[in-house]
């Protein structure tokens, strides 16, 4: 049989083609093997490092704030541990965060009060993106593009149109669960990468805490932990001066606190003591380092530092004394409120200082106000009014006037003036409260509270001369400047330097007319705070040293036993702000005048203090003023009122306590109650009673 040559030729071509294919396959495998060898041998270590690459992120955990004690170690402000749920974003996208928020919302109840209408619109657009995009037509998009703007600006303008066109009906589609998801998502979205955010730290139930803990593997970034909340041992006592704590750093101070390693949602002192001593109370947060892979998954956690609770502070306040003073204030304020013409009376203040060290032994303020819920009148704490509100104090400041007369040389020790009303042309007579004093010296002028003695001193300071029924001509600019500068040396009209924020300096009358100068020296023109007149009388009591008031006595380490004081870190030393330049006999005369006010039969406060066993000295004050309180809007013209004050110290020879009492807007009309006397006597009585009791114990 003959074989066809064409067939043979075809068969011989098939093996050849297969060989070519096999050869090509061989070459490709060789190249692949060579390439794999290169990757493994030459670049293997590099790729291995890239696969095993991790990232370290340090997260700070909250620690308890420092506690606040009174001077005797009695706890005033403490911390209560509470369950908390947190979130840390390790690089999750918005859609991933939203999924976690949706899961978490099924496990916890979330407050939605802070969800705004804008938040709702943003959320609705996110959930209904295609419907939202249809709200902006193609023509509108083209018109926006035609403005030759950036892509970012185009997107912003388009999104703004979407926001404007989300209807109330569409927002009503969001149910309670949606709003809870939104509230959680809003918190997630507000933080920086790898910063721990507080999702919920108030009212976290045991069930919520357990459910979240059990499902942490399904909630990337979510964790359960312990947080702390401030607790107060006393309901209303000192509440306004202790201050408040913010849940989160204020926006206006964000850069300041972030530079000091705060987290955005850290608790920060917002007012008064909590604010003033934030750097002491805040503590050193615990730091934990999370080690993640390049996808953001946490591989392990390492403790960098355990953290340390904030340091404790000890106040100069004696809480037993403080509570007793507040009780007196409340009782006398309610009692005075029952007197006629007291419709505008609503507050009173007491400050007690150690005149030598400036320690604030008690600072109390009470205000009668209407409860917003019940509509009933109740007594509220108004302690911050001792440094933040000012009033004309009346004759209490006359000690400063007498000493200013000495310092300027217009009066000498034993200078006498005839006390008869001044009759200035076109002005009602200006006199003392009685026209029977005759000629008197500075000691008796203080004892009986002569206005005329002070008027004539002021006229002399201004190089003026008084002639009956003639205009009063003098250099009022000079006199105002000299008198006010002298008063500031006692703390009147200037900051006392107390270690609290928001201290006011009072109001200086703007006009420098002769009549107003006469009002100034009897305490009826410029206004002062209760703390200022307390510093003023303390300066007279201690021999002429203006000492800075302070409310913090010590800073101490915290202890494991929350009820005990730790070792002292810093003891705050007294600070003398200035010493008044006085010659022998000047201050002694004023001190004697103050003693006679309370102990001489003719003294203005003798009927209430002459039998006091602790030998007090002081000065009373009644000022004609205009009401400028919370009810001012009810009146077309500010009503005329009487402010009552009292400054005192005891014992008069070796004073250990200085006191200021202020009762603003005490009554209307010329005659009324003497709540300043009643409060002052009862406060000094209780101070010396408690001192005796504590010594005996």
From TrEMBL:
Gene3D superfamilies: DD-peptidase/beta-lactamase superfamily, Penicillin-binding protein 2a (Domain 2), Penicillin-binding protein, N-terminal non-catalytic domain, head sub-domain. SUPFAM superfamilies: beta-lactamase/transpeptidase-like, Penicillin binding protein dimerisation domain. Residues 349-684 form the Penicillin-binding protein transpeptidase domain. Pathway: Cell wall biogenesis; peptidoglycan biosynthesis. Its main location: membrane. It is found in: Cell membrane; Membrane. It is a single-pass membrane protein. It catalyses: Preferential cleavage: (Ac)2-L-Lys-D-Ala-|-D-Ala. Also transpeptidation of peptidyl-alanyl moieties that are N-acyl substituents of D-alanine. Residues 62-301 form the Penicillin-binding protein dimerisation domain. Keywords: Cell membrane, Cell shape, Cell wall biogenesis/degradation, Membrane, Peptidoglycan synthesis, Plasmid, Transmembrane, Transmembrane helix. Its EC number is 3.4.16.4. InterPro entries: Beta-lactam/transpept (IPR050515), Beta-lactam/transpept-like (IPR012338), PBP_dimer (IPR005311), PBP_dimer_sf (IPR036138), PCN-bd_Tpept (IPR001460). Belongs to the transpeptidase family. This is serine-type D-Ala-D-Ala carboxypeptidase.
């Amino acid at each position: 049989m003959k074989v066809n040559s064409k067939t043979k030729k075809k068969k011989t071509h098939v093996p050849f083609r297969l060989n070519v294919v096999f050869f090509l396959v061989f070459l490709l495998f060789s190249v692949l093997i060579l390439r794999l060898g290169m990757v493994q041998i030459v670049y293997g270590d590099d790729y291995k490092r890239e696969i095993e690459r991790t990232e370290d992120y340090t997260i700070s955990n909250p620690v308890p704030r420092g506690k606040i004690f009174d001077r005797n170690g009695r706890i005033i402000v403490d911390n209560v541990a509470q369950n908390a749920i947190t979130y840390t974003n390790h690089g999750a996208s918005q859609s991933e965060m939203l999924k976690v928020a949706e899961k978490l919302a099924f496990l916890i109840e979330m407050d939605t009060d802070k969800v705004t209408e804008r938040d709702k619109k943003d959320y609705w657009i996110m959930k209904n993106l295609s419907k939202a995009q249809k709200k902006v037509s193609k023509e509108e998009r083209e018109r926006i593009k035609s403005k030759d703007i950036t892509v970012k600006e185009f997107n912003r303008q388009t999104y703004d149109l979407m926001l404007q066109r989300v209807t109330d009906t569409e927002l009503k589609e969001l149910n309670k669960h949606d709003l809870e998801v939104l509230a959680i998502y809003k918190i997630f979205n507000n933080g920086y990468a790898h910063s721990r955010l507080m999702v919920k730290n108030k009212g976290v139930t045991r069930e919520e805490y357990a459910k979240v803990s059990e499902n942490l593997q399904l909630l990337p970034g979510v964790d359960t932990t312990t947080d702390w909340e401030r607790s107060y041992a006393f309901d209303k006592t000192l509440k306004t001066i202790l201050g408040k704590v913010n849940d989160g750093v204020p926006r206006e101070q964000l850069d300041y606190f972030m530079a000091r390693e705060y987290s955005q949602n850290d608790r920060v002192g917002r007012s008064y003591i909590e604010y003033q001593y934030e750097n002491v109370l805040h503590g050193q947060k615990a730091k934990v380092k999370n080690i993640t892979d390049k996808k953001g998954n946490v591989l392990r956690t390492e403790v960098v530092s355990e953290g340390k609770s904030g340091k404790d502070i000890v106040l100069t306040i004696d809480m037993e004394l403080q509570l007793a003073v507040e009780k007196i204030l409340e009782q006398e304020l309610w009692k005075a409120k029952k007197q006629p013409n007291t419709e505008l009376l609503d507050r009173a203040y007491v400050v007690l200082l150690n005149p030598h060290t400036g320690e604030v032994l008690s600072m109390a303020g009470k205000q009668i106000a209407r409860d917003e819920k019940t509509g009933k009148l109740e007594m509220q704490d108004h302690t911050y009014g001792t440094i933040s509100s000012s009033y004309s104090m009346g004759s209490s400041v006359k000690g400063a006037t007498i000493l200013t007369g000495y310092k300027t040389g217009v009066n000498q020790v034993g200078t006498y003036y005839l006390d008869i009303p001044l009759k200035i042309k076109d002005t009602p007579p200006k006199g003392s409260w009685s026209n029977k004093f005759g000629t008197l010296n500075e000691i008796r002028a203080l004892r009986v509270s002569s206005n005329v003695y002070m008027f004539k001193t002021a006229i002399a300071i201004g190089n003026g001369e008084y002639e009956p029924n003639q205009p009063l001509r003098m250099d009022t600019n000079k006199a105002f400047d000299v008198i006010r500068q002298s008063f500031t040396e006692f703390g009147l009209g200037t900051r006392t330097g107390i270690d609290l924020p928001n201290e006011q300096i009072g109001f200086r009358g703007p006009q420098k007319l002769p009549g107003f100068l006469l009002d100034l020296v009897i305490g009826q023109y410029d206004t002062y705070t209760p703390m200022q007149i307390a510093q003023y009388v303390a300066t007279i009591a201690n021999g002429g040293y203006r000492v800075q008031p302070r409310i913090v006595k010590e800073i101490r380490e915290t202890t494991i036993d929350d009820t005990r004081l730790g070792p002292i870190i810093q003891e705050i030393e007294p600070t003398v702000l200035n010493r008044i330049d006085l010659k022998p006999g000047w201050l002694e005369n004023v001190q004697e005048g103050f003693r006679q006010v309370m102990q001489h039969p003719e003294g203005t406060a003798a009927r209430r203090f002459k039998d006091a066993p602790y030998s007090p000295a002081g000065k009373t004050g009644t000022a004609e003023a205009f009401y400028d309180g919370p009810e001012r809007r009810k009146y077309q013209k500010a009503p005329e009122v009487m402010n009552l004050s009292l400054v005192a110290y005891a014992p008069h020879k070796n004073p250990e306590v200085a006191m200021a009492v202020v009762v603003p807007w005490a009554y209307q009309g010329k005659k009324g109650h003497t709540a300043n006397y009643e409060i002052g006597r009862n406060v000094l009585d209780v101070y010396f009673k408690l001192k005796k009791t504590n010594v005996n114990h």
